[in-house]
Every structure is written in structure tokens, then in C-alpha cells.
Design goal:
By secondary structure, this protein is of the alpha/beta class. Helix content is 25%, strand content 30%. The relative contact order is 0.17. Keywords: Methyltransferase, Transferase. This is Class I SAM-dependent methyltransferase. Its EC number is 2.1.-.-.
């Protein structure tokens, strides 16, 4: 990976001629994403993210932290003990520059040695699962990192609305995917293209079924305005 997402974050923070990120998926056209959005403060966040931060407690792990805005809010505004991880070196470098005390380059599947009271996976937290078949692997790993009484706060969206309806009112979904929420993402930044990567959107019922099969209780905490939701997984 070229870490273009991380480069965009770093460029924005260091004022190094940042540009918008160009995103495209297997079911959508090119779109521009403002990097500034990743640097929003608590008051600028969607209600789902605000709710997740309100529920966060104890020792916290922020998975896929990006520019670190969630971690920074919890650290600075609530003085909570938080560890922020991301696979992007430039994103973590930015997090450290922003003042996050504990930020490290780490893949969640390789993370070991600590347990947490709250694990956050926000901004379509199910995305890192990549494909439906990987849910059990990630949920098993996340469960192993929880303290007794711990919680996972994770958000996603049901993207069924993006598919065309047929004459009977059903949805026309490409047959090459095992599940309609499996997308391939393409990112471009400053004329460079990132390697395509898998990204998973999970409807709540599918997440709930996966959670229950892995020994979790699963609670629908909040639904957003556009098919999005926040869920709480606990043991």
C-alpha cells in the first residue's frame, strides 16, 4: 500500500498543499472527499459518533483511528486512557503531532499484550473486516482484547438502498459478491492511485447474527438519518 490516505492526512495537518481524496467503489462513481472532515471536533461529528464517545469508558482502544479526532476528544475533553491504532504510518505520525499520547502503527489482528474496557470502531467500523467471511476472525480477536464487562462500539450502514430495484420491488444485486455490503474501494490522491482494497458495510441484522455466533450480546444503540447505525457488543 502507498498509504495515500495517510499522506493526505499528514499533508493537511502540516499544510503541505493538501488536496481532496478521490474515492471510487465497485458500485459508485468517483467522489471527492475533503480531508478536513477527518479533523472535525466533537461538536462537528455525526450523532452516532458523539453517542459512541459518550458511551466510551475505562481503558479505550480506538481501532482505525485515522487522523485521531475521536481519540483526541476522549483524551483531552474527558481525560480518558486511550490507545489509538491504525495501519497507516502517516496517520499515526499525524496523531502524535496532534498530541495523542499513545498512538501506534498496528494491525488489530496483530495487536497483543493489553486488554480494554471499550474498543471503538467508527466511521464504518466494520469496513476493516473486508469481506463477510472475515467477520468471525475479527470478532474473535476483538473479544480477546476485552476486559470482563467490556464493550465494543461499532458503526456501519445498510447499503441496500444503493442497488436498483427490479419490477417486483426486489433489489438487483451483482452475483459475484457473497454479500451485497462487500465493496472494493479505490483511492487516488495527488495523481497517485492506491492499491484497491476490500471494505465491508454490514446491515445490523447480519452484524447481530455474527456477534451472537461469537458469544456476544448485541444491542442497537442508535440509528442515523441515512441507513447507518451504532451497535454495542458485550460479553
Amino acid at each position: 500500500m502507498k498509504d495515500l490516505f495517510g499522506k493526505a492526512i499528514f499533508d493537511f495537518y502540516t499544510k503541505n498543499s493538501p488536496e481532496d481524496i478521490i474515492t471510487e467503489t465497485s458500485i459508485s462513481e468517483e467522489d471527492e472527499m475533503s480531508v478536513e472532515y477527518l479533523f472535525r471536533n466533537y461538536n462537528e461529528m455525526p450523532k452516532i459518533e458523539q453517542k459512541a464517545l459518550q458511551l466510551a469508558k475505562g481503558k479505550i482502544l480506538d481501532v482505525g483511528c485515522g487522523a485521531g479526532s475521536h481519540a483526541l476528544s476522549l483524551q483531552n475533553e474527558r481525560s480518558l486512557d486511550i490507545t489509538a491504532i491504525d495501519i497507516s504510518e502517516k496517520a499515526i505520525e499525524t496523531c502524535l503531532l496532534r498530541g495523542i499520547k499513545n498512538a501506534k502503527v498496528e494491525n488489530i489482528l496483530d495487536f497483543e499484550g493489553e486488554k480494554f474496557d471499550t474498543i471503538l470502531l467508527l466511521m464504518n467500523g466494520t469496513g476493516i473486516f473486508g469481506q463477510l467471511k472475515n467477520c468471525n476472525t475479527y470478532l474473535t480477536k476483538l473479544k480477546s482484547l476485552l476486559n470482563p464487562g467490556g464493550q465494543i462500539l461499532i458503526d456501519s450502514s445498510d447499503i441496500i438502498y444503493m442497488f436498483d430495484e427490479d419490477e417486483d420491488g426486489g433489489k438487483w444485486i451483482p452475483s459475484e459478491n457473497d454479500y451485497y455490503g462487500e465493496l472494493v474501494f479505490n483511492i487516488s490522491y495527488k495523481g497517485e492511485k492506491e492499491e484497491p482494497f476490500d471494505w465491508l458495510y454490514l446491515d445490523y441484522n447480519t452484524l447481530q447474527n455474527a456477534a451472537i455466533s461469537n458469544g456476544f450480546n448485541c444491542e442497537l444503540v442508535l440509528e442515523g438519518d441515512h441507513y447507518d447505525y451504532l451497535a454495542k457488543l458485550s460479553i
